[in-house]
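Re: the request from the purification team.
They wanted to know what the chain is likely to look like in 3D before they choose a buffer screen. I agreed to run a prediction and write the result into the notebook, where they can find it.
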Amino acid sequence: MPQNRIVRVGVSLSDKPTAKLEIRVKPWAVVTHEGDTVEWVPTAINHQKMRVTKLEIHRVAKARAWPFASTPKFKEKKLKTGGRLPLGGKLKKGSRVPYTIVITFKDVQRKLRTASIDPDMIIPD
């Protein structure tokens, strides 16, 4: 039965006594089956207010295939894919699909900053 897989993306910052930036992507490797959707959701972490202002999902150039009909677009603070394409061609069961999350967030001085993270999507056997 198809499921909606949620990937939470958050940023935590501190500037005292030592500067610290923490970025969380949970789960790091999302396991998705045929017919599933994947939704990337900005979230607040470490009891801080929401710092993520924008999420982008980018395909990795070296990746042989992308498991969805299109790359997700940012809309209303969440990203969601369409239904999975049938497995076949270059995308096989057991594949690991790399992708990049680009996040924009406000630092402690409220300046916009950008960071890139590269987790994986797994198509199980």
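For the purification team: The chain has one domain: 4-122.
Please add any questions underneath this entry.
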